[in-house]
Design brief:
6 strands; 2 domains; alpha+beta; 365 residues
Length: 365
C-alpha cells in the first residue's frame, strides 16, 4: 500500500511538472501569435489577455494525454534505472500492480480531458469569437490614438487629439487623405479633409462610422495646382470591418458538444469524434507507457524514449488521417476515429504487454 502511494505520487508529480512546462512552451507560441496580430492592428491590445486565456483549453486538448504519457515513462524509467523497480518487484509488486496505478491516473486524466474537450474548449471558442466580433464593432477598441496615422480602407486619418469618454471616442482636429481613381492616364486624384471635431457612431446595421464636424473638403486632380474646396457641417466615413478571423474560424468548434450529438450533420459528428478522441488516448497511452518504461538499469533512463515518441506521433497522425478521410467521405462515419484505439490495442498494446516468457513457451509448443 505504501509503495502504491509512492508510485502514484511520483508519476503524478512528474505529470504535473510536464504539463506546466509544455503548457508554458505552447502558450508562449500562442502569445507571440496574438501579439503579432495586435501589433498590426488586427486585434485590440485591450483584449490580448482574454484571448490568451480562451486559448488554454485548445492547448490542453493534446497536452493532457501527453503529460500523462510522459509522466509515466519518465517516472517508471527512473525507478528502473535506479534499481528501485527490482526492490519493488522483490516486495511483491508485479507489472499488473503498476498497470493498475497507471490506469487510475489515466481515469483521472481522462475525466479532466473529457471536461476540457467537451465543455471548456467549445465554450472558450465561443467566447473568443464573441470577443473578437465585439472588439471589431465596438468604438472603444478601434485603433484610433492621438498623434498617430490610422488607415481605414481608402482613407488615412491623422487625429491630433482623442478623448475616450466612457467608451465613446471624441476626436479633435482631424485630417483625412483619400486616394481616388484617376480620370486620366498617369494621374491620380486626391481628397483632403480637415475637421475641427468628430466622434464615433454606429448605425442600425452595426456599421461603424467616423463622423466629422465643421470641416472642409479639398479635391486635387494631381495635375493642376488648383484645389476644389467644399465646406461641410457633417461628414461620415465608414470604418471597414475585417472578417479575416471569421473566415478562418470553423463555426463547429464553437458549438456545444450536446448540440453536436443531437445534430445529424456529418461535419458535426466528425467534430464530436474529434473531441472524444483524446479521452480514449489517455487509456491507450497509459497502457502503452508501462511496458515502454520497464528497462534494464544498464540501459539508462531514456533508452526507450525514442520509440515512445514515435508511437505517440503515429497515434495522432492516425487520428488526423482518419479525420481527413471522414471529411472527404472516403470512409464511413462509424467506426470512424474510434478505429484508431482498436488498431493500437491489437497491434501495439497487446504485443507490448504480453509476457515474453509466454511467447517463448508458445513457440516451443
Amino acid at each position: 500500500m505504501i509503495l502504491n502511494k509512492y508510485i502514484f505520487k511520483d508519476i503524478f508529480k512528474v505529470q504535473i511538472v510536464t504539463l506546466v512546462v509544455l503548457l508554458s512552451v505552447f502558450l508562449c507560441q500562442t502569445i507571440i501569435k496574438i501579439l503579432g496580430k495586435a501589433s498590426v492592428g488586427n486585434i485590440p491590445i485591450d483584449v490580448v489577455s482574454e484571448l490568451i486565456v480562451y486559448s488554454l483549453p485548445s492547448i490542453g486538448f493534446i497536452l493532457l494525454p501527453m503529460s500523462l504519457y510522459v509522466g509515466i515513462i519518465v517516472s517508471l524509467s527512473r525507478m528502473s534505472s535506479d534499481s528501485e523497480m527490482v526492490v519493488m518487484r522483490s516486495s511483491g509488486l508485479s507489472g499488473v500492480s503498476f498497470m493498475k496505478i497507471c490506469l487510475i491516473l489515466a481515469l483521472i486524466t481522462a475525466i479532466a480531458t473529457c471536461l476540457n474537450c467537451l465543455y471548456f474548449m467549445p465554450t472558450a471558442n465561443q467566447a473568443k469569437n464573441a470577443l473578437t466580433d465585439s472588439s471589431q464593432n465596438n468604438p472603444k477598441y478601434l485603433p484610433i490614438e492621438s498623434g498617430k496615422f490610422t488607415d481605414f480602407g481608402d482613407y488615412s486619418l491623422y487625429i491630433q487629439e482623442v478623448n475616450d469618454e466612457k467608451g465613446n471616442k471624441q476626436l479633435g482636429q482631424v485630417f483625412v487623405i483619400k486616394t481616388v481613381k484617376a480620370r486620366a492616364i498617369n494621374s491620380t486624384e486626391y481628397e483632403f479633409l480637415t475637421a475641427l471635431s468628430g466622434h464615433m457612431s454606429k448605425d442600425k446595421t452595426g456599421t461603424q462610422w467616423v463622423v466629422l464636424e465643421n470641416g472642409s473638403l479639398y479635391k486635387s486632380d494631381g495635375v493642376s495646382p488648383e484645389l476644389e474646396k467644399v465646406d461641410f457641417n457633417t461628414l461620415s466615413i465608414p470604418v471597414p470591418y475585417s472578417d479575416e478571423e471569421d473566415s478562418k474560424d470553423n463555426s463547429l468548434q464553437s458549438i456545444s458538444s450536446a448540440d453536436l450529438y443531437k445534430s445529424n450533420n456529418l461535419a458535426a459528428q466528425i467534430e464530436l469524434q474529434w473531441r472524444v478522441a483524446p479521452v480514449f488516448a489517455c487509456f491507450i497511452f497509459a497502457i502503452m507507457a508501462v511496458p515502454l518504461s520497464m528497462i534494464n538499469p544498464r540501459q539508462g533512463k531514456f533508452a526507450r524514449l525514442g520509440p515512445a515518441i514515435i508511437l505517440f506521433v503515429c497515434y495522432y497522425l492516425a487520428i488526423l488521417s482518419i479525420r481527413n478521410l471522414l471529411n472527404s467521405g472516403k470512409i464511413p462515419l462509424f467506426p470512424g476515429m474510434y478505429i484508431v484505439p482498436v488498431i493500437f490495442l491489437i497491434f501495439v498494446l497487446i504485443p507490448l504487454n504480453v509476457d515474453k516468457n509466454f511467447l517463448k513457451s508458445f513457440k516451443k509448443k
